[in-house]
Amino acid sequence: MEEYLKVRKEWQKSDTERDKDQKDPAGIRRYDNIQYGPDQEMNVLDLYLPEDYDRPLSVIISIHGGAYVYGTKEIYQFYGMNMATRGFAFVNFTYRLAPEHGFPAALEDTCLVMDWISENKDKYGLDINNAFLVGDSAGAHYASLYSAAYSNPKYADFIGLKINHDIRIRACALNCGLYDPLLLVKRDGLDNATEYLIGPDWKEKSPDYLCTANFLDPSYPPVYLMSGTNDYLLPQLEPFKKALKDHGIEVESKIYGGGDPEKAYHVFHVDMNNIFQKECNDDEADFFRKHVVS
Fold this sequence. Notes:
Blueprint: H1 3-18, E1 28-35, E2 44-50, E3 57-63, H2 77-84, E4 89-93, H3 105-119, H4 121-124, E5 126-136, H5 138-151, H6 153-159, E6 169-175, H7 181-188, H8 192-198, E7 223-228, H9 237-246, E8 251-256, H10 277-290
Parallel strand pairs: 3-4, 3-5, 5-6, 6-7, 7-8
Antiparallel strand pairs: 1-2, 2-4
Helix pairs in contact: 5-6
């Protein structure tokens, strides 16, 4: 069996076990399985809203993780509804995965999600002037690259994205992220994820376009950058933080795990049973509120 198929099977089992006792929180209305693009299976999203609100809601758009080859909106539903209880609309979507769909398919799907939000803002009461991106692991990488395309037209043109600038990305939260796959390859020799993302000849393609730091400029959205003491991608945080600061981009960072460092594992914030998830998600919601423009 191909390694990525094993990953899908094993991680699905683990995530299902993680969420087996979770229930929808009180006070949240959910709209499930909305088609946002042409792929009937993969281009679907959920929208979570507080039951009672009297003004358009700031919107969090989540790009899930999964080493580029795994993941669906279902494994982020409880995290998404939890964030919505903080007074946001939350868009939780499935996108096309590698290796069946290489780069930049996931970012193309993100563009389709943005178009859907713009087209449906009045129906659901969404404030497209105040949108926020979240992503974790590979999803943080995608969110960082989408933010680069949003703020840098040359990069958007280079990778062929059509960005909807009606959606104003005010800030992003990048969680336990990968920002330079080549650093990971050099450290651990992990070629599989990069090969799955851009094909078996990736080394000849000089994939510097996957390193977000290469395409930063001062108009990049403010960033909340987090990791955990037991996160295997923790070494990616400081180089990317430095790159953001070097380009004059606002960045706030935090490494969680004080008092119980083993519990601050990779993407702990989406595990509603984790002792650090509330602190982290409260911090990120506060960061977003700070950047709401009235």
